[in-house]
Amino acid sequence: MRLRCPSCGSSSCVNSAESVIKAAPSLYARCVSCNDLVLDKRAQINLPDTGFDDLKCKNCGRRPLDAVMAHILSLSGGQESRPALTLQQMGTPLLSPGVPTYAPPHVGYQNLLLLTKQRIVADASDLILKQVPEVKGVIYGDMKKVFGLEDHHAAPNTCRVLAGCDVRADLVTSAYGQILVHKSQSKIHIEHNNMAKMAKLGALPIAGRVVLDALAGPGTLGLMSVLMGAQKVVLNDAWLPAVENAYLNLQANREILGIRMLRRTSTKNRAPSRAPNLYCIATTDNTRIEVYHGEFEEFNIEDSGVDLILLDSFPNTARYFIDMAEEIHRRYPGIDIVCI
Ligand SMILES: [Zn+2]
Ligand SMILES: [Zn+2]
User: Are residues 75 and 204 in the same domain?
Assistant: First the structure.
């Protein structure tokens, strides 16, 4: 079943986990006829020398990532053959979907989301989207900042979608299997490598337990806990775009997780509240999944039946949540709390 992107309505933004898992090994690997190009990311490059326009593979239709980036550079800021900007300075190309690559990737139609903070690239974003088929979106923002609701007492950090769509996914692997995690990338923190987190999660006794993924984001830990055999998984986040992404990820991972029923709850007549509100419910043969939108501080731990709380906070708020975890542990000594 094809899924529609809740952001742009296209059916090419959102993939099912099983289709990406199947395609992953060869998704960005060169085929026998592919052309290669590897450029120095830190040096000025002479665009005509790269031949970026002629490097599309006649067999698979893909181009080396550096050829695509050179193409984008050629559209940014005039007709110079040797632009001042290096490829590294242009921004960060995010593969869509993001899967492990073991060599310079070869990318195809709409496989790239470009995150830039260069004004001249931003100014050319419409042209880039129109003329570079590999680009699915251009967003403007600073990579070093945390995107999303870093601290719910402050305004959320988001970046601007300049052209196209910002929804992309990452394939996440643990010893228990793989899930596909979609993110509205202009509003959700970029995680480059979650292997350490998956190793930590994988070492926890999850099977048969009631797990609260308290700062769930798009749902990575919670969904993986379903694969690990939890009896019940509760996902909670104060940032609505993250909760919406978690719902999308239940749809995209429906088959992998064995979900039989998935239902949005009604938001009609609901009073605005900081306390978590039930957003959706899903069930598999063995697990009940509930997704809440609200602040963890207001979560009713006592009545929830939770016996394991996972806390995956942003680095800047880690101290705050560690203190909170200690306080919860004092009040409910039977509940395990793990900062991931
Ligand atoms: Zn989209
Ligand atoms: Zn090829």
Answer: no
In a domain, 108, yes or no: yes
User: Which numbered ligand comes closest to the C-alpha of 63?
Assistant: 2
Q: Which ligand is nearest to the CA of 108?
A: 2
Question: Distance from first CA to last CA of the chain, Å, rounded?
Answer: 33
Mark the ranges of the chain whose per-residue pLDDT is less than 50: none
Among left, alpha and beta (phi > 0; psi -120 to 50; other), residue 92 is beta
Total domains in the fold of the chain: 2
What confidence score (pLDDT) does residue 269 get? 65
CA of 37 to the centre of ligand 2 (A): 13
CA distances from 12 to 114, 150, 181 (A): 17, 30, 15
Burial 38-57 (b: 16+ CB within 10 A, else e): ebeeeeebebeebebeebbb
Secondary structure (DSSP) of 1-50: -----TTT--SSS---HHHHHHHHHHHSS--TT-------TTS---HHHH
Q: What is the pTM of this model?
A: 0.93
Q: How far is the CA of 201 from the centre of ligand 1 (A)?
A: 30
Residues 133 and 268 placed together within one structural domain of the fold? no
Cis peptide before 97 (omega within 30 of 0): yes
**Tokens 């910002």 label which residue?**
166
- Alpha carbon distance 197, 213 (integer Å): 13
Question: For residue 32, how far is its CA from the centre of ligand 2 (angstroms)?
Answer: 6
Strands 210-213 and 277-283: unpaired
With H, G, I as helix, E, B as strand and everything else as coil, classify residue 162: strand
- Concatenate the DSSP letters of all residues of 115-141 into one string: EE--HHHHHTHHHHHHH-TTEEEEEE-
My answer on whether 238 and 153 are in the same domain is no
296 is in which domain, residue-wise? 193-339
Which pLDDT value is given to residue 44? 94
